[in-house]
Amino acid sequence: MTSLEEERRNVPFECRGCWHVWEEEYLVRHFSDRHGNECLIWLCGGLPVLPPSPGAVICPRCGSQQATTFPDGYLARHPELIPPAHPPVPDDAPLRSPVKYPLFYERVT
Ligand SMILES: [Zn+2]
User: Fold this and answer.
1) How far does the centroid of ligand 1 lie from the alpha carbon of residue 91, in Å?
2) Residues above pLDDT 90, as percent of the chain
3) Exposed e or buried b per residue across 86-108, where buried means at least 16 C-beta atoms within 10 angstroms of its C-beta
4) First vs last Cα of the chain: how many Å apart?
5) Which of 15, 46, 76, 95 is the most buried (most CB within 10 A)?
6) Has this prediction a pTM greater than 0.85?
7) CA of 98 to the centre of ligand 1 (A)
8) Where do the structural domains in the chain lie, given as residue ranges?
């Protein structure tokens, strides 16, 4: 006996190169094998792909592979992260990534 279930998931990513935030829509197929193990197949555009993870996606804006993912549902609670229609101003925008980045101090006053 196997069971098959499909689920649409929008997975948000953030580029660590240009801070672009975007979402990819995946179709996730859940099924259980005969031993009761749950298996997942990730499909994107109808093709099987690697599960979304840092390094598995390419930034659509700058082509960087240094993209990070957000926790599930993170963007729903932080709609301000979804890029507005106008171009962002990278230097003025505070970093709102949930990922902790090292702080760099160029000079100490
Ligand atoms: Zn980028």
Assistant:
1) 15
2) 23
3) eeeeeeeeeeeeeeeeeeeeeee
4) 68
5) 15
6) no
7) 17
8) 4-71
Look at residue 107 and give its three-state secondary structure: coil
Å from CA of 40 to ligand 1 middle = 28
User: Do 34 and 81 form a contact (C-beta atoms < 8 A)?
Assistant: no
Distance 7 CA to ligand 1 centre (A): 28
28-48 pLDDT per residue, tens: 999 888 898 888 899 988 899
- The pairs formed by 88-95 with CB atoms below 8 angstroms and a separation of 24 or more are 88/19, 90/18, 90/19, 93/19, 95/19
Six-digit token string for 72: 């599930």
Report the Cα 104 to chain-centroid distance in Å. 25
What is the 3-class SS of 11-60, one letter each residue?
EEEEECCCCCEEEEEEEEEEEECCCCCEEEEEEECCEEECCCCCCCCCCC
CA angle 85–23–87, rounded 5-degree value: 20
Do residues 21 and 81 touch, judged by C-beta distance below 8 A?
A: yes
